[in-house]
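[step 3/7] fold_predict: job queued, chain A
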Amino acid sequence: MRAPDEPVRWGLLGAAGIAEGAFLPALREAGDGRAVVVGARDGARAARWAEGNGVERGVAGYEEVLTDPAVEAVYVALPNGLHAPWTIAALEAGKAVFCEKPLCGTPEETERVLAAARATGQPLWEAFVFPFSDQISAIHGLLAEGAIGEVREITSRFHFVLDDPTDIRVDASLAGGAIQDVGCYPIRLARLLFDAEPDLGRTIADAVWSSDGIDLELWGALAFAGDRRLVFSCGFLSASDTFTRVHGTEGELRITNPFHPGPQDTYTVVREDGAGASHPAAPSGERSFAPALRHIHRAIRGLEPPRHLAIDEAIGNATAISSLLDAARRPDPAGG
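[step 4/7] structure written:
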């Protein structure tokens, strides 16, 4: 039994950019976890990467990370198509798991992973970190207070330019695509703010496809009960943009970056009667992963109940993504 104040010991699967640029800096910022080992296909590269990023050691492959008795929690930073087998392996090895989003490429794979989480009893989180942020807590409070009246619609964009044809995010064999990489965020946000699941029988979508069937851009709409809706777009072909609006009967909430806010980002209430105010999205200046990791550490140590577990929340995103991709592939009935 670990002491409540002992740092949680992490093993990393994959020497990935997201681990280097987001996870590890936030782990240091959270202050209550240690990265003890990273596994990569090339052991020499893993050792160099570990030395350069403050991880205690690097090893060849992923199995050694899972069999290491010092490792309590595993961060899965592998390509989407590898999430399911290695997340299941980590859970079955008795580790808590924080898996990059999307948890899996299909609803069927997602169900297999969630079944493993239930069977092992190990906590599993899909790496959407914004639900743990102060910004989202404040936005929940504003909406509950009726700051913009009754919420009717969320409009959201998540775009950036990806011009490397060898990038794993445009690899069909690894479950790439714009909606899996960035479109998943507006979907998760809408499900969170509406506190509901969409009616997938009313899904609308279209896309720009690569030659091998990857969605380079996708735009669509998800309908929620009470005639509410998410209207969104995502892609790899436009300049960086995460702007989101939450529209209500008495005004709107404008959010420059609901997903990974930085020091320059804000959320602003704009009311029809002229009232409203702008607020800094990340007043503490800490990295977006830090609050999520702090919670995970406390949950692992038994200091607070786990929140936003994948067994409660992941299948909704997986089925919505599948529905939107199916709708985007559907032939145009007008023959256009």
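[step 5/7] annotate
Residues 19 and 294 are 16 Å apart (CA to CA).
The chain has a mean pLDDT of 96.
exit 0
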